[in-house]
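Hey L., structure's done. Input below.
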Amino acid sequence: MPTTRTAEKEMRAAERRKARNKSFRSQTKSSVAKAVGTVASGNLELAQMDVKSAVSALDKEAERGKSHRNNAARRKARLMKKLNQALATTKETAVKPKRRTTRKAAKTTKTE
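Output:
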């Protein structure tokens, strides 16, 4: 417990800052969780918009000093990695694989 009046006042101010920071961090966590969920669902157009807003929220949080900038960078990198993997798997399934030729068929085309 604080023993001086200034310590008591600082404690009250710290409680106000804590409440403000907690709500801001909670909003950021919610936006990141929403983006992760959208990426996992497979709706990639909506996922890109959600990831963009989550990255913006993480940047604002770090800029305002609510979290460390390296923490925000790490979380953004993980989020972008998930999005990029989802986009890559979608592109792989959309592209038709080339038909492989057998050795016998390859020999006949060379000799002819």
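The chain has a mean pLDDT of 88. DSSP finds four helices and no strands in the chain.

-- N.
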